[in-house]
Predict the 3D structure of the following.
Amino acid sequence: MRDLSQPTVPSRAFYDQLAVETEKRRQANPTATALDPHGGASIQLREELKAHIEALAPQIVALSQGIHAHPEVGYQEFYAADAVAKLLQAHGIEVERASFGMETSLRAQIGGEAAATAAGAVVAADADRSEKQPTIAILCEYDALPGVGHGCGHNVMCANSVGAFLALAELEKSHPGALGGRVILQTTPAEECDTAKEILAQRGMLEGVDAAIQTHSYAYDLVDQAWLGVRRMRVVFHGVSAHAASAPFMGRNALDAVTVAQVGMGLLRQHMLPSDRMHAVVTDGGLVPNVVPERAEMSVIVRSLDAATLRDLVARVEDVFRGAALATGCGMEILTGETTNEMPVRANGPLSQAWVRAQNTVGRTVLPRGVITEVIAAGTDFGNVSQRVPGIHPLIKIAPEGTALHTHEFATAAGSPLGDRAAVDGAWGLASVALDYLSDPQLRQAVRADFEASGGVVDVASFWEK
């Protein structure tokens, strides 16, 4: 008989089977499609850019290691923001701190009209501005998980973005005008605990931006994966208190409503899409057992792979809550944040191909979407960006295959030699994609055409009002 004072150890059978299945899929479809070797930037510029990355490698790794050693949760990334700002300033780059009114957000820019404007200034767009001065944004995360540290590898992702930006800045210094456009570095705090990219987007972060890119740490090199859209809700049930022993019939139990809601969510799971997810916790269930709870509250997250299916699932879940209130005689209110939660990520095809080509040159074999099972899925507020402008969020391997995100094991990997190598390789990948995009009008046209074909600009800010 097992020791009931301890939980059971979760089985790793799924991950063992995943390794077998992944290898089968890898053999059947060994690599993602790479950009034509002759497309994008010139070979000479790419070689010079790569040399800058190699020269910057010690600083890129030092930044990653420093942030890894000082994990900070969302909106508290003071060490990370200061480390990034000081590194940029050491290279002669102006930095706007607390950009768009967010205390731990930074903004800097190079190329194009950047020299004539203050860092972070938004350049007005005109009808054909993207061809006069194309602009690409490199986004940068650096928040950690409470109790886990950098179990999502944001220290490596930050080093990728900052390293790419510095290499492009060095290229522009040595060849003024070589970029052919503008590059913005925008740090985006609090990815783990909030939807800061949505807040920043609504405040103007993407004005004048034609495309946006950043990486994500992972246990595989993967061009794209399933990124679920997310809707967060607080559900409050209002009942009537009563003496639980002498007059329970005079009460309306708000905690009962929560129980009915949880049962309804459980039954709904049978009828969801395989990739859909729901999770909830009870944040208020009453105070003492001899008083019928007059108030109870749930914190709920609903996820789906597509914007349309997310909207449908949320509507069905909300009906479950209404039914729970009706069944128990309670009142009910659904509370949501001021900003839209995470939208599904739309990965741009031509930009993804540029990433694959760059990673191939440093010995990384990037797997196409579908090789890794999409049973494993997560959400990110980069989805809110990718619904507004063309973007990519490729995954770079920093940990042994099968290492799960948001674990102590992944946090350890984020500070390991694998993480250090990924910090440099990812910086090269982002810098190369940005240079290809700015250098090649045909690539930019292909990027835009792919974006329009996948649905074009979505009114993210008003998505839940429709």
Summary: Confidence is low (pLDDT under 50) at residues 114-130.
